[in-house]
Specification:
With 170 residues, the chain is mostly helical. It has 7 helices and no strands. The model has no long low-confidence stretch (mean pLDDT 89).
Length: 170
């Protein structure tokens, strides 16, 4: 078993992780938001901007930690919980508002040909795509988001004492 991390090392590791995570969320969400706006999906653009805001919260926490402010950990935890909430709400809304007519548009002639050759009827193709739709949003929303953002929030929470100690020693 390894000895516990020194408080300074814990602070630096949390800072590096949070900075990388916050920048990733901010950049990726901003790009998706821009694409959604260009395609006329204002709801998607707003969700993207809200997710980007969660990344900005995490970067604010990083800034506070760099300045020696232990309250930055609260910003890190809040950013993960905010991100989890936004993604879960988005996935729930998508699951509750499935639009079968979009399935028709999603099936390209090439897809239809491949499925037909495999013995699928048009109705079977629609049902398959509908199942994939529900499975995707369920996996992303429930499993991936809760586990990843939950574990990130827990990680930050468990290191708050070491971070507070490192910030008050300086």
């Amino acid at each position: 078993m390894q000895p516990p991390l020194l408080s300074d090392e814990a602070l630096m590791r949390v800072y590096r992780l949070a900075r990388r995570d916050g920048m990733s969320v901010l950049i990726i969400a901003s790009i998706f938001s821009l694409f959604a706006a260009m395609m006329g999906d204002m709801g998607g653009a707003m969700i993207g901007l809200t997710v980007a805001g969660a990344g900005a919260l995490e970067l604010q926490g990083c800034h506070l930690l760099r300045e020696g402010e232990p309250r930055g950990v609260r910003w890190l935890i809040t950013s993960q919980l905010a991100l989890m909430s936004v993604i879960l709400i988005y996935c729930l809304l998508r699951l509750l508002n499935f639009q079968p007519e979009l399935v028709e548009q999603a099936i390209t002639p090439q897809m239809r040909e491949v499925f037909t050759e495999a013995g699928y009827t048009t109705e079977m193709i629609k049902k398959l795509i509908e199942k994939i739709y529900y499975l995707t949003y369920s996996l992303v929303g429930i499993i991936i988001t809760i586990i990843y953002q939950g574990m990130m929030a827990r990680h930050y929470y468990l290191r708050r004492e070491a971070i507070t100690q490192a910030c008050t020693e300086e």
